[in-house]
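Revision sheet: structure tokens.
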Amino acid sequence: MHLTSIGAAALVFLLSGSLAPASDTHDSGTVVELPRVMVHVDETVFGLSTSAGTVGEVLDLLRIALGDLDRTSPALDTPLSDGLEIRVTRVTCEEVEQVAKIPHRTIILADPDRQAGFTSVLSHGSEGTVRQVWRVWKKDEVETARGIITEEVVEEPVDTVVLRGSRDLASRGGDWREPLMMEATAYDPGPKSCGKWASGYTATGAKAEKGVVAVDDRVIPMGTRMYIPGYGFGVAADRGGAIKGMRIDLCYETYEEAIQFGRRQVKVYLLD
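Predicted:
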């Protein structure tokens, strides 16, 4: 540490050396012992004897400026006493933007008609991404706290969907889904299935195409994703006057495909 003169009212000394008593002589000739204090700031330690009256006056004397968030211990208006240690803590708060990953789920569909050990990956998933803005607090350049201010999903995660045999399987771990047994019919968006007023759109306004499933929304809420073996992935996006209770109606591209499907019992796995 440098030995520096900062005026007649203070003496900065090397910490490795010994501190001799310091004094000040008044005009009356009276000798007054000056309090000795230590100031810790910005990885530097100042030792001085001073006639300053408060912590704030010592910092002014040393030309130590404080930011709006900086803190002192003890407080600035604290009177000086011999041996007092003053610590200045630099406090900063900044906003930091970062992109984080959103993990994807693995949904396991239990097939009771297949022996345990059978596995078929129906859909490979992927992680999503989210843009986050964090408020980061630091004390003397060391992070002490952080919190999210805003989040914006840039890309939604995509689930991995796996079909596994569950016959004779004693225990299960993970996100297993049991199927609903439902009666399924099929239709196409044309007038042969939907009548002369067929518009090519569903009751919810979605385009009628392969993957659209008409449901009773008291049983399966609109927007629910599902998987039907033999049909594939679908979403509840249509209603039908005859579709009540445990019934669904599957949209196909052509009338011929719909007729070929006919009416049958199917397993319906809800993914949401």
